[in-house]
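Lab meeting, item 3. Inverse folding demo.
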């Protein structure tokens, strides 16, 4: 059902009568506790819950979806049942816990996250989704009398790392539990709702495209804020029309191009001043590079630019406003408070520093006194020794002026203070990463996007229309602002039509990321057996989507088969079988291409082989890449998949080299000894080693004897040339070779073969999508059987082994590796400090650029334990490759020394010294280690000594800033 237009007078009268009738219902009682009227979509959703049905509510950010969740809680309390409120992140759980505790009383509300447990038996419990999943698998008593589950931000199930947890919960919740799913506006809400209806029973789908606070779109050109659209166009007006029956926005294929200037709908026209400016900027760029006078023209423009006022965009090149200038412009136009999204933590911190150093103040003296009191209260329980390393005073100074950063690298306490001060209007400008858009309640009057691209961990990519909608959805505070404002900063090369395309599209499809994991599979087997487990997995949203897509694919196959018949008729030749002749032509072309590609692959293979042969101490000459020239090999890389040995260049730079840096196989020029005391992080060590390499090169010392450097390019596919000759002879001898219409037939033949390949690919897709999840489950079971976690009895039935029972209680991305590490005794000879340190190897995930050389281990025991873990991971990876399963992440050693020092009681400054870890990141990883240690300590049948050590390790590391509760 769609709620996107105002009601007619007759509909309004009927709605009024219904409200009178509902006064004596639970909904009537709930409405009386509110100081505002419910919107139509909220009322419909609440009625569905009251009448015993589940509900999926999809509405824009800030529309008030959480009211539906709060009504579910109200119903549970009135009916003396329990209600769980689940969220994707701890910050949102903490925020919701505080809100509900204030409303219903602290005694009635609990909080359960991975590292925090407060009043867990309360009738209302806020928790992260993973906690509820773990409860379901453990068949926890806490589930008794559960009546309602609110799944906030349910669209998070599309997350490729954690999304599967949402589906697990939805599938496994008892059938009598009503589920209220709250989602951002998604373009396939009907499909998701249909799946919920299938697995949960009666589920109403309620979609609202309406924003209660109108959203206006702008571009900031220099210091001027210019309307993006030519007309008076708000968020609702540029949304695509909704389907009359489903309420889901209809998006025509031609509108999927974000750069398309869709002038067919009134009000969508892009501001012509912006388009003219983009053209002028492009012409000036060409003129500046290839014409005359470009520099002087730009100088003249800059001199005139400051004199321009009004709505029209300045023409030609524009100097981008600084961050303080952007905030000052927003302040002058009464557009604060504002959130500026910067896709970089360092950028957020730098933005606050720039605003502070500019002398800009956004707060009054009264506001500064309130802020100072709040900040000092938040910091009073933090150990004084840690305040400096946490950047407390810099953070405090920014807050007093009305500025703050908000990102994952900050201490959770600091983030929560920022959130509260911003909501209260005391902090006026927040510079945030995109994680803030994930449900944390921080609405603003304006949202600013510095760029429309971000680094996704591998490459810089454009943000999607869905991400744009999610980010700008923060603009406009309900009950406070008359309108919200989204502002994109003009950058060189900005395409206004592309920005308009992002702003006007509502294509945010919800796609499942579900796949069976080892822990999920072993729990399903233990509870339901293999046959029933397969049925349950086939009821997942992932399989539901795959099955639906098969219908469309089958239709395409039928259509293509008809076209193939027509093509076959058109290529008929009166001289002979043209299909056979076409096959010979294609085989000849393929053979020639294979020869070319094989030669190229052989060269690449030789380059990889030469890299894998390099040994520590080899001095090589790197011909290309970022730093060409001589370099010393610091560590070998025999991984087999594109080896990347670490090297030190002669100008003291640490880097890794790969095949992209080579022009051919690389061989050592000479060889030096690397001292045992060498530390790559110490500049002096690097300088001394580089000096040794220069001396060896000058003296022309030979590399070590006995080293093979034979990289001759072997003959590639020696029989291939003979095959090509035979095909050419057969082609000339074929009757169709002499046909006068041969090339015309050949064109139809090419079309036939191309369409045949595409059709066969579609058929394979259909085969691959049928029972996809169950097939993956079978492969996971094969791995579990191979490792002894499943045992086959005399009757042929599979049972869970004692090791398998242990795996049932281990939750995490490296679940099987953790279980194997326990099984192989990696934790056996460690003390409590070392147990905490080894746990980091199984939890921590370094950024790609932070991965470096293997560090020296803090102790001999840890050296042995890490070797066990790494060897087992390598073996597990081989097994997973053979079974075509996603690979378990590599054990990371980068957090071992910081954790070792922290568990030893060292100060935070000492712990973080020499690392790139932010304090907030360190606290977050320590809490995840605590979560893992707590899981291990509670495993039934675990060695009592290890269980005691895990508990002792938790007490050692839960101190200082880690112990300081993030729930204020």
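The presenter then showed the designed sequence:
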């Amino acid at each position: 059902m769609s709620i996107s237009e105002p009601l007619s007078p007759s509909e309004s009268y009927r709605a009024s009568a219904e409200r009178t009738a509902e006064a004596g219902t639970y909904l009537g009682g709930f409405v009386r506790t509110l100081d505002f009227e419910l919107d139509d979509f909220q009322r419909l959703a609440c009625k569905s819950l009251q009448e015993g049905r589940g509900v999926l509510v999809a509405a824009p950010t800030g529309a008030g979806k959480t009211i539906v969740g709060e009504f579910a809680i109200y119903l549970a309390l009135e009916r003396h049942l329990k209600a769980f409120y689940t969220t994707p992140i701890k910050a949102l759980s903490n925020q919701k816990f505080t809100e509900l505790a204030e409303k219903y009383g602290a005694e009635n509300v609990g909080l359960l996250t991975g590292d925090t447990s407060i009043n867990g038996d309360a009738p209302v419990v806020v928790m992260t989704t993973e906690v509820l999943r773990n409860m379901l698998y453990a068949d926890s008593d806490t589930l008794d009398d559960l009546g309602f589950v609110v799944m906030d931000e349910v669209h998070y199930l599309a997350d490729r790392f954690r999304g599967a947890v949402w589906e697990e919960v939805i599938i496994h919740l008892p059938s009598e539990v009503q589920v209220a799913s709250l989602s951002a506006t998604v373009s396939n809400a009907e499909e998701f709702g249909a799946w919920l209806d299938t697995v949960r029973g009666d589920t109403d789908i309620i979609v609202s495209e309406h924003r209660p606070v109108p959203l206006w779109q702008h571009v900031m050109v220099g210091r001027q804020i210019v309307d993006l659209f030519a007309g008076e166009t708000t968020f609702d007006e540029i949304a695509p029309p909704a389907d009359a029956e489903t309420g889901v926005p209809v998006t025509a294929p031609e509108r999927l191009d974000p750069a398309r200037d869709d002038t067919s709908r009134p009000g969508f026209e892009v501001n012509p001043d912006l388009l003219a400016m983009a053209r002028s900027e492009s012409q000036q760029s060409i003129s500046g590079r290839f014409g005359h006078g470009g520099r002087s023209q730009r100088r003249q423009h800059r001199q005139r630019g400051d004199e321009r006022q009004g709505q029209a965009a300045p023409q030609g090149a524009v100097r981008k406003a600084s961050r303080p200038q952007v905030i000052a412009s927003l302040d002058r136009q009464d557009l604060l408070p504002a959130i500026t999204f910067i896709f970089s933590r360092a950028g957020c911190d730098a933005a606050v520093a720039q605003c502070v150093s500019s002398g800009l103040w956004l707060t009054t003296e009264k506001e500064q006194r309130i802020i100072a009191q709040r900040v000092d209260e938040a910091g009073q329980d933090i150990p004084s020794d840690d305040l400096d390393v946490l950047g407390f005073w810099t953070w405090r100074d920014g807050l007093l002026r009305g500025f703050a950063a908000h990102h994952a690298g900050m201490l959770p306490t600091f983030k929560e203070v920022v959130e509260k001060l911003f909501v209260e209007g005391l902090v006026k400008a927040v510079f945030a990463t995109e994680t803030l858009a994930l449900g944390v309640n921080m609405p603003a009057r304006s949202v600013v996007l510095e760029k429309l691209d971000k680094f996704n961990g591998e490459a810089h990519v454009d943000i999607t229309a869905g991400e744009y909608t999610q980010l700008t959805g923060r603009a406009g505070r309900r009950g406070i602002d008359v309108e919200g404002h989204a502002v994109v900063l003009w950058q060189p090369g900005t395409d206004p039509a592309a920005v308009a395309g992002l702003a006007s599209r509502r294509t945010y499809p919800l796609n499942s990321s579900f796949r069976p994991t080892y822990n999920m599979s072993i729990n399903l087997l233990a509870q339901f057996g293999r046959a029933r487990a397969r049925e349950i997995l086939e009821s997942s949203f992932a399989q539901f989507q795959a099955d639906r897509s098969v219908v469309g694919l089958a239709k395409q196959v039928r259509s293509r088969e008809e076209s193939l018949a027509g093509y076959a008729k058109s290529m008929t030749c009166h001289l002979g079988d043209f299909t056979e002749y076409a096959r010979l032509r294609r085989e000849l072309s393929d053979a020639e291409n294979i020869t070319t590609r094989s030669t190229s692959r052989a060269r690449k293979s030789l380059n990889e082989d030469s890299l894998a042969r390099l040994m520590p101490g080899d001095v090589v000459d790197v011909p290309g890449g970022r730093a060409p020239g001589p370099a010393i090999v610091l560590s070998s890389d025999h991984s087999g998949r594109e080896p990347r040995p670490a090297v030190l260049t002669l100008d003291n730079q640490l880097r890794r080299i790969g095949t992209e840096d080579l022009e051919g196989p690389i061989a050592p020029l000479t060889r030096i000894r690397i001292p045992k005391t060498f530390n790559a992080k110490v500049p002096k060590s690097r300088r001394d080693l580089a000096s040794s390499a220069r001396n060896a090169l000058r003296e022309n010392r030979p590399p070590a004897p006995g080293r093979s450097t034979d990289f001759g390019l072997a003959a590639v596919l020696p029989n291939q040339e003979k095959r090509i000759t035979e095909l050419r002879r057969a082609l000339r001898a074929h009757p169709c070779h002499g046909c006068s219409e041969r090339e015309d037939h050949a064109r139809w033949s090419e079309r036939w073969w191309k369409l045949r390949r595409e059709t066969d690919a579609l058929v394979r897709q259909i085969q691959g999508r049928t029972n996809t999840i169950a097939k993956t489950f079978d492969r996971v079971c094969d791995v579990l059987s191979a490792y002894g976690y499943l045992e086959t009895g005399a009757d042929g039935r599979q049972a869970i082994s004692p090791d398998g029972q242990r795996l049932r209680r281990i939750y995490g991305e490296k679940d099987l590796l953790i279980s194997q590490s326990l099984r192989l005794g990696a934790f056996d000879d460690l003390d409590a400090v070392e147990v905490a340190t080894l746990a980091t190897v199984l939890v921590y995930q370094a950024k790609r650029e932070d991965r470096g050389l293997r560090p020296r281990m803090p102790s001999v025991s840890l050296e042995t334990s890490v070797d066990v873990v790494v060897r087992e991971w390598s073996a597990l990876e081989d097994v997973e490759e053979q079974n075509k399963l996603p690979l378990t992440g590599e054990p990371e050693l980068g957090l071992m020394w910081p954790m070792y020092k922290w568990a030893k009681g060292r100060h935070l400054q000492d712990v973080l010294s020499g690392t790139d870890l932010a304090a907030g990141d360190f606290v977050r990883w320590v809490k995840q280690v605590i979560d893992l240690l707590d899981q291990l300590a509670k495993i039934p049948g675990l060695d009592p000594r290890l269980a005691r050590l895990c508990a002792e390790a938790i007490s050692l590391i839960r101190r200082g800033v880690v112990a300081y509760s993030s729930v204020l």
